[in-house]
Task: structure prediction
Amino acid sequence: MLTLKQVEAFYWAASLANFALAAGRLHLSQSSLSKRIAELESQLGQNLFDRSGHRSVLTPAGQALLPQARKLLRTADDLVESLAGAASVRGVCRFGVGELAALSWLPRFVARARKVYPELVLEPHVDLGRALEERVESGELDFAVVAGSSTRTALSSQPIAKVRFVWAAAPALVGERRTLTPELLASLAVITMPTDAGSAREFDNWLLANDFEVGRRLRCNNLAAIAGLVVAGVGISFLPEAWLAPLVRRGEAVVLDSRPALPVLAYTFQARRDDIRPLVRQLKALVVEEVDFSLPSRLQ
Amino acid sequence: MLTLKQVEAFYWAASLANFALAAGRLHLSQSSLSKRIAELESQLGQNLFDRSGHRSVLTPAGQALLPQARKLLRTADDLVESLAGAASVRGVCRFGVGELAALSWLPRFVARARKVYPELVLEPHVDLGRALEERVESGELDFAVVAGSSTRTALSSQPIAKVRFVWAAAPALVGERRTLTPELLASLAVITMPTDAGSAREFDNWLLANDFEVGRRLRCNNLAAIAGLVVAGVGISFLPEAWLAPLVRRGEAVVLDSRPALPVLAYTFQARRDDIRPLVRQLKALVVEEVDFSLPSRLQ
DNA sequence: CACTCTTACGGCACCCGTAAGAATC
DNA sequence: GATTCTTACGGGTGCCGTAAGAGTG
Result:
């Protein structure tokens, strides 16, 4: 008897091209997944993977099965979704969050997701964009919300919000100056995130496009720490406008205009293109619906 | 976790409108089927059957699910069929066969089916057409091969062969006469099958349409016995041309012409319209392919 | 009282995870 | 030797069938 479990195991093993990752995604031991696939092969009377090499690759039969497996799983998901609705989203969801999103959007999203999908267990992983993309592609993460769209073809990047960045400095550092001239930029230390972060990548592009030179460069992988460094007068940095507002209000930082203005950064929802699970679809819808990168009020 | 077993149980229970019949069709105890459905209901978070009455009827949610369940099962069947092919047809198949088909087509069909589908266990039930139709509709039989098409809307009747019937008599009974005149017909006993059989129904229509009168009527539900009665000179009967040939060759019977000629009887493959199983589809294809109602050679 | 479905329960089969093995690079 | 998948095996969950129960007409 054919079971959905078997087809699911095959689908993810084929999609991720790795039994261990597929097992992880299905919250299953790798050995069990292997057996499910072996069972499916015996059901269908032919091998779906060629095990002769170091790693398993799809046989022609396996390639033929893949689209059919996708269709079957999607049909099953549609069935559940249309009748059970939101209650169908359950289990564990591992997702990545960029630094900025982690400090602004994440708490609100988690709160909302917990309410809409009470059966869902969320596991957010905060890291830099590049690292998150890698883990989404490998299947370790179900999706990620990061700055900038990915260049990876295996991932789909859905823009969900534009965030305006502005230059920030400690009042003592810039005195009365409120405009960032090229000279000023060259004389001050600029604090950014590591190049693996989407925001820093975009910033580098901006520098390059405008032929700007920076003075000292200081990289820190923690946005809150960067803000602290800015307030302490170590250097200037660019921060989300909404995120900076409370600091400005408290007189701990001032905004510097620049010409041209800093680029508006697009944050994207990224997931594997071949990930057809309702979990991803539903959470994507939830993310798109709830896109506010300003600070939660209680932190302001 | 949704399983195909659950959906299958629901689909047949809803289609047959009876848990016990559905259980029989799935070779399952009625209690297990009941539990599978209860499990599905808890999965989906709503009742699919309204149990308040004497028998369960679909709730609106159940009605919404039915087409989706059909689609899911069909998708799963397609998957198996396209990869496993003939090997996917297995299990037990209960089917009905009319008298004529039982003595001519059945042995050959069974032999062929056993060869094409080695994993399939066949359970032929020989009976009269009407009775078989009832049992197909109720779900006790998977399909039937009988004379005439059914008037039951729940059944699909696919014509598979036309069989020419001719009048047969013992040589001693008719002397040199080889033509069946209305007078001769009225003076002889006519041996037919009971009215529940398709062939007898068609014959009655023929009589009525031509304003013929018959003399004594003798009904027997066994075709071989009828042939024996004819050979013994008890009366005349109509038998399939090909089936009669060996008797004529041995001089035990002669063919009588009639004007108009006896109707050509269409045999049909009958199954429930909503029966989407590959088993039925495949065997239907096999039946259509192999339609020879002549006697197996070893019996001639 | 006949019919249809549900509940209770003992038993067994299946599936899972741990751990060790085999094969490739 | 690291990685990837398979095999072996003990343990537990879940599903099945029998049998009794509940509710309807």
In short: Residues 89-160+267-290 of chain A form a domain with the D-Maltodextrin-Binding Protein; domain 2 fold (CATH 3.40.190.10). Chain A touches chain B at residues 1-5, 7, 43-46, 61, 64-65, 68-69, 71-72, 75-76, 78-80, 82-85, 87 (CB under 8 Å).
